[in-house]
Prior knowledge:
The protein is α/β, with parallel strands linked by helices. Helix content is 44%, strand content 22%. The protein has one domain (10-180). It is built from six helices and eight strands; from the N terminus they run ββαααβββαβββαα. Helix 4 crosses helix 6. The longest helix has 30 residues, at 151-180. The chain is globular, with a radius of gyration of 17 Å.
Amino acid sequence: MAQFLAATDIHIGTADGIKILASRDVYYVDRYIKSQAKQLAKDLLSVTSFLRAMFDLPDTLTIRIAKTKGRTNCGVYSNGYKTAIIDPRGGRKDTLETVAHELVHAEQYHTGRLVHDVSIDKHNNVRFINEWEGKPINSKGRTYNSYRNLPHEIEAFARQEKLGSKIAKAIKWNASFTKKK
């Protein structure tokens, strides 16, 4: 399970209801990735209004830049915390695609197309609800192939490359606009 927030996180800034945090480890300690983490935090903070325009996101959202447990797991989104964790150890293109991928999940939850919930009845019986567009999701996604075949993952993977490129262009545009001032 990913750690979605830590007391030692560095608050980079908040704009348009999107809070950008970085773990202490990626921002100060790990000398191999701290420059990428700092640049990613700065870039994401500069394009929050663009992210809002591109995705249907919850009113408040946190993007936390931190290492994820698995080397192949570059990001994760928690609807309960309204937080996306992005691992900055990949290349710039892959990292921005991961941002896009996780924000697609944020949009899926926010619009109600994806539901993962728990209901407890009056007899304390627990029922897990996993639905995509109102239909039950039966697969648990335990293997890589079954994970990739989950309907919400199919959509996120299909959209991530194009959206990641758009985020990169917005960052470049914003950087060139800021330099002209």
